[in-house]
């Protein structure tokens, strides 16, 4: 049987890995799926900066969840979730499109924000 600490830590780490994957997806297929999007970020430099920031944020969340580095995991994952929600809403309202990766980013951020503190509480108990 899996103890609650390990269960929540693994869910938080999985959410962080999803954030990395979504950052990589942004870099490799984002412009093909949403050809109007790079212009919003001022062109390819801004576009790639956002993708790299997503990859770095995911790696920081992953390392923070596993206690490899000190990172404000809940704060960072909440920001990631909020940005995912904003992109989801913007894409739906302005372009009438469903942005699956933005929804997944939002859910991954929520997963980390919820599970990381639970893992910490279980570990302390």
Describe the structure.
The chain has 125 residues and is mainly α. The protein has five helices and no strands. Helix 1 runs antiparallel to helix 5. The longest helix has 30 residues, at 4-33. It is elongated, with a radius of gyration of 15 Å. 35% of the residues are buried. The mean pLDDT is 95.
Quaternary structure state of the chains depicted: single chain
Strand content: under 5%
If you average the pLDDT, what whole number results? 95
- List segments where confidence is low: pLDDT < 50 over at least 5 consecutive residues: none
How would you summarize what this structure contains?
Helices cover 83% and strands 0% of the residues. With 125 residues, the protein is mainly α.
